[in-house]
Amino acid sequence: MKETLQIGFIPLIDAGALLVAVDKGFTAAEGLDVTLVREVSWSNVRDKLNIGLFDAAHLLAPVAIASSLGLGHIKVPIVAPFNLGLNGNAITVSSALHAAIMAEIDGDPFDPMATATTLSRVVASRRKDGAEPLTFGMTFPFSTHNYQLRFWMAAGGVDPDEDVRLVVLPPPFMVESIAGGQVDGFCVGAPWNSIAVDRGVGRILHFGSDILQRAAEKVLAVREGWCAKNPHIVAALVRAAQRAAEFVEEPQNRIEVARILARAEYVGVDPDLILRTLEGRLKISAEGTVRESRRYLLIGRQEAPRPDPVQAAWLYAQMVCWGQAEMSHDALQTAHAVFRPDLYDQALGSAAKPIRASDSVGAFAGPAFDPENVARYLASFPIGRQKPR
Amino acid sequence: MGAESSPRIAIVDESPIRAAILEEGLREAGYTEVVRIGEMQSLLSRIYALDPDVIVIDLENPSRDILEQMFQVSRAVRRPIAMFVDQSDTASIQASVDAGVSAYIVDGLKKERLKPILDLCISRFNAFSRLQDELDRTKSALEERKVIDRAKGILMKLKGLTEEEAYVLLRSTAMREKKKIGEIAQSILTASELLK
Q: Are B81 and B47 a contacting pair, CB within 8 Å?
């Protein structure tokens, strides 16, 4: 008998493993009858997963953690047995802000420390001139995008809550907002940075991997209770997603994958643009400058699908750093336990591997991340909004 | 705000008809301070300016994520906002998600005061989708009527039938082929288009 599942997603390239798993029949081969539901907001995805309208969802990794901790919404424990996407985000700035940064920069423009310190000078001179503070868009309060943007700025001495404005914008509104001058920059996932570049309204300043070498952005999320009751369904889903993630990464499949994702019921954008994203060759300016990175958008390679609890701990540390969560040992443990490499390993029949003890985040600034000592890690960053204990 | 005064309600909805239906319902129920926001540009600043006690938003609106930002304590926020639901309210959230509406309550308004507002919004949202379905059905019925009329016209012309006879022919063919009259009519139109 087939198991019927409702799975929600947001139209983004990093839903690719999920969409391809269903479209290519990999889920059906595992005995799953999946209905994909395209959603318009992360709040909807979260709510529908939490109340059981969805069995699983393409979800922002920090939302899975926030939901498990009861931050900002009702507390529903969520687990992530599979990573759908790492390193797909990028920071895009308006042509005007790009010019302002490049006029002042002292160093390599791809070095995030150089751009962040320059941004801090731009911010200071705007303040002196009495100009409005710069505004940056990100997709959700609990998003890797938010933390990447904040981490980058703060490393250069820009306080993201005091010196600039950070606003939530749904991804489809990002391009319009930078074109209309409502925002000066944003951090968003694929394909939206490329769309802004193609429209000639922005330039990609940094790939997310410039900020963090490895950053978990989207996960395949299920309710913890449902997961415990349906281990065989979760395992089947993981296997189908793994097969799809590997399929997506095969160079000879890229054109087919781009065509599948381009369909209106999935992501609904130009297949050529999706292809550039999958190849990790992004046009970063309207004139056609291309930047290539092996680290851009990891779906099935470099062990991307296997959840890494160190990543979850780093995301929790950011929640503490920016005043979204209180520092507590229990909360850290809860966050850690959202990412479930054990479920991934069981599903694929692979031997359990020790959790990486070393820093698997690779942030460009600050000390190596120590998941055992989050408080000391955070103490080394001068800018933050930690709640008093 | 005094305990007896009417809470200020902001309706965020890009569908002007549904927003009007909602506003009317709220006013009839005695809520006098209702404002509609149909323009999503600078949504947050509009909401801050209105300073509502309750915000009602349609779930098909991507701007819902923008509202989530208000939970974040930051410099820009004047009054923290909490979602109406707490651990015990999953039935309410289920009903509202089913209806396609969500509500947020600003700290300071008692939760019990939200319940009747939300119930009313849910029933109006459901009524609106029923209307929409009915409208869609009427539209497709009208479309089908047009197709049948054109097919009858073709039969009358080609086979020299009366309108009555043309209809009987359509109906008996539909019955024999176990199809809908509309489908038979459509295939006549397609065929006549091809044979032109």
A: no
**CA angle, residues B81, A64, A304, in degrees to nearest 5:** 145
- Assigned domain for A382 exists: no
Render each residue's pLDDT in chain A as its tens digit; 389 residues.
689 999 999 999 999 999 999 999 999 999 999 999 999 999 999 999 998 999 999 999 999 999 999 987 788 999 999 999 999 999 999 999 999 999 999 999 999 999 999 999 999 999 999 999 999 999 999 999 999 999 999 999 999 999 999 999 988 889 999 999 999 999 999 999 999 999 999 999 999 999 999 999 999 999 999 999 999 999 999 999 999 999 999 999 999 999 999 999 999 999 999 999 999 999 999 998 999 999 999 999 999 999 999 999 999 999 999 999 999 999 999 999 999 999 999 999 886 666 555 678 999 999 999 998 999 999 999 999 886 54
* Mutation for B interface: A48, A53, A74, A324, most B CBs within 10 A: A74
Is A124 within the bounds of a domain?
yes
> For residue B24, what is the domain's CATH number?
3.40.190
A residues 121..160 contacting B (CB < 8 A): 139-141
> Measuring CA to CA, how many Å separate B176 from each of B115, B158, B173, B181, B191?
55, 21, 5, 11, 19
From A51's Cα to the closest Cα of chain B, the distance in A is 7
Flag if A161 and B42 touch (Cβ within 8 Å).
Answer: no
Domain check: are A134 and A253 in the same one? no
Strands A90-94 and A165-168 come out as unpaired
The angle formed by the CA atoms of residues A42, A44 and A48, to the nearest 5 degrees, is 120
- Cβ neighbours around A223 below 10 Å, total: 23
CATH at residue B190: 1.10.10.10
Number of domains in chain B: 2
Residues A176 and A255 in one domain: no
Task: Give the span between the Cα atoms of A308 and A217, in whole angstroms.
Answer: 12
Q: Are residues A81 and A225 in the same domain?
A: yes
**A384 at interface of B, judged by CB pairs closer than 8 A:** no
Q: Is A165 on the interface with B (CB under 8 A)?
A: yes
B36 to chain A, minimum CA–CA distance in Å? 21
Virtual torsion, Cα A332, A338, A342, A347, nearest 10 deg? -170
pTM for this structure?
0.87
- At which of A165, A193, A210 does a domain end? A210
Q: Are A25 and A167 contained in the same domain?
A: no
DSSP annotation of A323 reads: T
Structural domain including A311 reads 3-87+215-265+301-359
CB contact under 8 A, B62 and A43: no
Across the interface, of A47, A141, A166, the residue whose CB is closest to B71 is A141
Contacts of A48 in chain B (CB under 8 A): 97
